[in-house]
Amino acid sequence: MTIAEQFGFTIENAPRFTAFATTEERLLYQLDNEPRYMFAYSNSDGKIIGYYSLLMQDKGECELNNLCVLPEYRHRKIGQELLQDAYSQAEAHNCTKIKIGIVEENTILRQWYEKEGFVHIGTEKFDFFPFTCGYMVKELNH
């Protein structure tokens, strides 16, 4: 939600944005009907403070989605731990490439992924989003 708030996304102007995919019905659909693995990062009290999912695709590729950390737990390297886990999970499921889609206007996020070895490969503008989708990819070592 912090990105939605920062960039002015609302359920009215971006109903398909990740921040608004929080209903149990939507999450269960992703879990039950897509080749998607979901991972949570919990603190010592069992509270979920981070999350990501991997959508399995063809040709040894997967898509990293929804990597997030609650605002009060950011800047503690949890995002990097989640990303490292995503690499391990992807490799365990025979993926050789991870793709991501980001809000292109979020230059801080793009720079973070570039620092982590992702390469920007293009953009696309959709009518149903008030932002440009940026696409990045990272080849995995096997």
Helical fraction equals 25-40%
Strand order of the largest sheet: 1-2-3-4-6-5
| Alpha carbon gyration radius | 15 Å
Head-to-tail CA distance between termini: 35 Å
Largest sheet: 6 strands, mixed
In DSSP terms, counting alpha (H) and pi (I) runs of 4 or more, how many helices? 4
Say how many strands there are: 6
User: Roughly what fraction of the amino acids lie in strands?
Assistant: 25-35%
Indicate the low-confidence ranges by residue numbers: none
Outline type:
globular
Q: What is the average of the pLDDT values?
A: 88
Can you tell me about this structure?
- By secondary structure, the chain is α+β, with helices and mostly antiparallel strands.
- The chain has helices at residues 2-7, 24-33, 78-92, 107-115; strands spanning 36-42, 48-56, 61-69, 97-103, 119-125, 132-139.
- The longest helix is centred in the middle third of the chain and has 15 residues, at 78-92.
Output the keywords.
single chain, 142 residues, alpha+beta, 6-stranded mixed sheet, 6 strands, 28% helix, 33% strand
Question: Topology of this protein?
Answer:
Layout: H1 2-7, H2 24-33, E1 36-42, E2 48-56, E3 61-69, H3 78-92, E4 97-103, H4 107-115, E5 119-125, E6 132-139
Parallel strand pairs: 3-4
Antiparallel strand pairs: 1-2, 2-3, 4-6, 5-6
Structure described in brief:
With 142 residues, the chain is of the alpha+beta class.
